[in-house]
Design goal:
By secondary structure, this protein is α/β, with parallel strands linked by helices. The chain has a single domain, classed as Alpha-Beta Barrel (TIM Barrel). The protein is 43% helix and 19% strand. The strands form two sheets. The chain has an eight-stranded parallel β-barrel with strand order 1-2-3-5-8-9-10-12, surrounded by nine helices. The longest helix has 20 residues. The radius of gyration is 19 Å and the shape is globular.
Amino acid sequence: MRINLMVEGQEDVTWPQWVALARAVERAGLEGLFRSDHYQSVQARTHLGSLDAWTTLAALGPMTERIRLGTMVSPASFRHPSVLAKAVVTADHASEGRVELGLGAGWHELEHRTYGLPFHDVATRYEVFAEQLEIVVRQMTEDRFDFEGRHYRLEACEARPKPVQSPRVPVILGGLARARGAALAARWADEYNTVFPTPDAAARRRERVTEACEQAARPPLTFSMMTGCLLGETESEVRDRARRLMELTEQDGDVDSWLDGLRGAWIIGTPEQAAERLADYARVGVDRVMLQHQLHDDVEMVALMGRLLS
């Protein structure tokens, strides 16, 4: 299984921390570094800061040599699709072909109100998302095209340069593999990512995505998952990290009870225990994982993730 680090950048991750995390990912031998794309804390802690996702990834490209860099996921509500496509292709060139685009409809209402971004009803957000997806993919792959939708109109668009990667920057969609999302992924995406599943839930969601691909007459997509992660050399070290995370996220309660509530979906334990847990997911068809790391100054835990590869 391919293992990636996933960082919630809106929870006050600083530029020095981004640099240290990217270098730690390379040292650990992980496949890549993915980050969320939010402008405000999703826990409504509005005093925390967030650097722009695609600017961050473009800057990290020349500073790294091997790792993949991507979003999990960019909201369609933040940027015009042509602006998003330009940002993605620019980051692709800056990294010499190592970026990936996770794209979604957007859901965090508070950040939209705060920054003056449009936040439509669910049906409209999904329409915008579907149009953006098509436009971004076509800008990366077609020499010239027109687009006439409800929300966007492009005339004789010739987007150049094209990405370094061929035929395009990989596109990731995600969710719970409901019918509409799975069908959209089967048409336009390269990968489907699901969040915080148990192994049984991952198996069911993968099956629905595979069925959508069969209906679209295309091979199955790469199937991945994003979930939380807490590792330690010992159980005591795991509990120490859990206690720090509870303090960081302003949660009360007993550490052991909190951990017990997470073990169904998170990857928790020593590297050996975590490797066994990931093997359960590999058996049901999960191709790669994005492990969410919320202790942003803790590069030692990133090194422990590297031991999951052995």
